[in-house]
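Help needed: design a sequence for this.
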């Protein structure tokens, strides 16, 4: 059973109609859905949510905008002046924390709907938010403990994993691949305290819970009839196990044992992922063994 998002309706109240639904600044217009929006948070005469749902970002030279907007908005309140924003997002007007929560709540509800195309678009956005902006803070080069990844948020993580497992038998391989691609580089660290402490709707669990939920979902999902999805699962196991900066390696080893030996499925994924990623490490860890099936 998936936990409730605890979201209230995002329909604007009379008091909100004078403010942009996204950033709470002066709006330029009102979308047909009822959300007022400013020039920074609109696309082709729609608010950003409707633009995403109607596929207006597809087939254009520009990339999907919402995941970057969410991550940059989180970075703006992280109290880390050394966070590095991508060049394409340098002049993005960030959302308030309440704006981030509203937007994430809408995207989660899109995952819950019956339209597979809309669910794919929302999953692609939320999967991208599981990666963090980098920080060049010189005082924390040895031990960067926090990030801007929404993998830490229960509502985001659990609904993405639910959609991943749902896609296994529904023929929605493209949605599964969109989620798996981002889990390869997902940041398992805690959110910056300045971000997490200001959430009023979104909830976070500890690192151990995140690891158990993510890799438990992968155990239930793998293997599939899709070789590309299987390969991504194998690469996730290897890349997360061997990433000391943002990965889940320490927790994975504590929970599943060295080289994940306490889980038949995960140890198989790790072995194949090692073969795909590093022949030198495969020889070190699995000396004398042949390519795994």
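Sure. Designed sequence:
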């Amino acid at each position: 059973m998936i936990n409730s998002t605890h979201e209230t309706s995002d329909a604007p109240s009379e008091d909100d109609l004078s403010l942009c639904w996204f950033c709470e600044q002066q709006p330029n217009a009102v979308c047909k859905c009822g959300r007022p929006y400013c020039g920074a948070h609109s696309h082709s005469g729609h608010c950003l949510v409707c633009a995403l749902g109607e596929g207006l970002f597809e087939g254009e030279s520009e990339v999907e905008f919402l995941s970057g907007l969410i991550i940059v908005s989180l970075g703006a309140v992280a109290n880390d002046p050394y966070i590095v924003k991508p060049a394409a997002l340098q002049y993005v007007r960030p959302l308030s924390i309440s704006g981030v929560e509203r937007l994430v709540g809408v995207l989660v509800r899109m995952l819950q709907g019956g339209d597979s195309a809309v669910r794919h678009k929302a999953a692609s956005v939320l999967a991208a938010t599981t990666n963090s902006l980098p920080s060049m803070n010189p005082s924390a080069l040895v031990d960067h403990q926090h990030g801007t990844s929404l993998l830490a948020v229960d509502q985001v993580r659990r609904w993405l994993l639910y959609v991943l497992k749902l896609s296994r038998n529904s023929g929605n391989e493209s949605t599964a691949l969109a989620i798996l691609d981002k889990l390869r580089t997902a940041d398992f660290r805690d959110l910056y305290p300045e971000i997490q402490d200001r959430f009023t709707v979104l909830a976070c669990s500890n690192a151990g819970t995140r690891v158990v939920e993510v890799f438990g979902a992968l155990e239930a999902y793998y293997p599939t009839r899709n070789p590309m999805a299987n390969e991504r699962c194998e690469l996730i196991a290897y890349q997360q196990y061997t990433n000391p900066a943002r990965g889940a390696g320490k927790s994975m080893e504590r929970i599943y044992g060295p080289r994940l030996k306490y889980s038949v499925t995960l140890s198989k994924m790790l072995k194949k992922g090692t073969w795909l990623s590093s022949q030198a490490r495969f020889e070190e860890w699995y000396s004398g063994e042949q390519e795994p099936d």
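Residues 17-58 form one domain.
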